[in-house]
Amino acid sequence: PCLTQLCSPVAEKTGKVLGEFCRCYKEQYGIALFNSVRYEIEGNGGPQAQLLHRKVPLEDHVIYSGNLFQYIEENKKWRNRFCVVPHNYGLVLYENKLAYERELPPRVLVNSAGYKILTSVDRYLELVNSSLPGVTPKSGHSPILKCPTDFPLILWHPYARHYYFCVMTGKEQEKWRAVFQDCVRHCNNGISEDSKVEAPAFTDAVRMYRQSKEQYGTWDMLCGNETQVLSNLVMEELLPELRSTIGPRLKGKAQERQRTWIQISDAVYRMVYEQTKAQYDAATAKCEQERPQMESTIRTDMDQIITSKEHLASKIRAFVLPKAEVCVRNHVQPYISSILEALMTPTSQGFAEVREVFFKEVTDMNMNIVNEGGLEKLAEYMEKLSHLAFHPVKMQSCYEKMDQLKLEGLQQRFDVSSTSVFKQRAQIHMRQQMDDAVYTFETLLHQELGKLQGKDDLCKSIQRILERVLKKYDYDSSTVRKKFFREALLQITIPFLLKKLAPTCKGELAKFQELIFEDFASFILVENTYEEVVLQSVMKDIMQAVKEAAVQRKHNLYRDSMVMHNSDPNLHLLGEGVPIDWGEEHSGQPEAEPDADKRRRAKQVVSVIQDDEGVLPYEALLQPGSPEPREQEEPDCGAPPSSPDGVEKIREALAKESLGNDAKAEEQLTNGTDATRAAPSPKPRADVQSEAKVAHATPASPTAGAGTPSPSTEMSCHQPSDKETGEEVAPLSNECSPLQPTGTTESGEGVQTEF
Predict the structure, then answer these.
(1) DSSP 3-state percent helix, strand, coil across the chain (nearest 5)
(2) 692, 188 contact by CB (below 8 A)
(3) How does pLDDT run across 693-714, given as a tens digit for each residue?
(4) Which residue among 26, 85, 338, 491 has the highest number of C-beta atoms inside a 10 angstrom radius?
(5) How many other CB atoms are found less than 10 A from the CB of residue 38?
(6) What's the pTM?
């Protein structure tokens, strides 16, 4: 098969799906805009958070960097790579550590949204075998991948290219796995919740589109930025068609057919992504253009719109509610307590572990201050503590509590494809609550510093502030968990109810359209009002179940009647101040550091187990059937270095790492894009919903590398920024070419297939 034969059907399918989706998006945009303006005018109290929220994100740190081995598909070799995970959780792979320090362009930039982290080659082979039914290597034949060590790390995606890594020890594998999982968690985390119109419009449009195809329930591939989510939406429909038409035509051994299929899927995904981005950007731009006029109408006619909507709701309620209540009573109510208990146990254990980790870190810091000299060491300790929420290994004990979440039996009944959506959402809440607790502690301690007299005062003050913050954490974590439980119950039960009621109710909804005034048709939809009525039918039972759970005090939840009034009236004013820089203010340096020195001082959050470049045995670098290496490519032979068995505690080893000079032009994290190639022009950021959230951004054109620059050559540092966690694709050539791996051998400049 060649790309020429795929261009037309892929473009046709993508255009059809995007056409239907953009119609849904336009409808939901008006609804979301109305809800946003109404909320702004009417407000909606709710409990006030006691902890402070960091307004300015931490950006002067690297999550992790270190060496691992990557399998290069183009020449079937394993190569040592220096991997850097910056604060935006992209994976940036360099030729080696020296290339990173010299600010040379990275080999690969990977956005991990939608990926799964596998530590078993057998599990990977199962997924590969299932992706192309009927094509399974015979017993005794070489599989598609062999790992030279017992510690693989594989990034698997149902549509995009796969990435293969391995390390030398189990400790390294465990740490890298925690780091990679944090990258996936962050990149899956959709659009910022600050987007009050675009985000709900997008996610509701995705839901409405899938429901129009009779697909209800949670969706695992609702992850990444909007373009990634829509590409997944297209691929979900397109891939089975391609598999049935192209699969039987693939030639060669089973392993070769599997490898070719992965390449075809990746190539199609990139084509879909490019077309999807263009169509979606055009649709959002049109909505933004119409927004001022729509908003003006909403503000002018708010009362009439609300009255009209309530009249429509009353008519739909009279028709739907009796049927919905019977359905709730018979099919939902008996299971609510079971679902809630299944959610509460691991979630509450996870939040309790967050509290414990925070308490332990602050207590250890206090003890170290007693033993090591007070204020002089405070800045160093506080810089480490400020990054606690972003430490994948220390937070792993909190995150892994959610692995216990099981909805066995209930999962099939309520059409929940997987629990990963709920696990990930709870873990995101854990990280946010940890950071809020740390930031509140920082702020209160910083306020106290001017009043302290010596080491004893400092230690007493730390202990007192810790107790205050823990009380605030208990209250906020209870509020966050109760909200999470209510949302999860709705996510599980509402799609089930809509599916149950569809045969008797959905066909009758058209007759209610005449009740909507034409002037208000952009802000009131029959379908949305119907769903609100269904939600009301079950909301009372859900609220009651969560309330009863809080009364039992089994999971350390506050009752709804418990309202903690602001015990620190000036605390939130402190949170509005300039961010605290412990290194600048309390490091004892009399002069401000130049920017370049400050960048070199950037901290690495996770300590390195093996800092030196490992070397695999020579024979392990070649896979069967790989070409003979060129003389200059031969690795140095030698025994692989062993990682130290006694690793220092992570809290004592936040290593200083050089980040290099700031990039004047931001670099987009593309999924495996060769960073030496030019990238598309910037587009504005947009964001998505609660199930999956990832920041979306765009690159400036990177420096085109024609050869290896000399050490003295000054180059722009390709250091990813916050806006790089979106996925961007370099434009495909208009001329379709026969399918083959894009990229060259290791000796070339372009190494990876672009996405």
Answers:
(1) 55, 5, 40
(2) yes
(3) 333 333 333 333 333 333 333 3
(4) 85
(5) 18
(6) 0.78
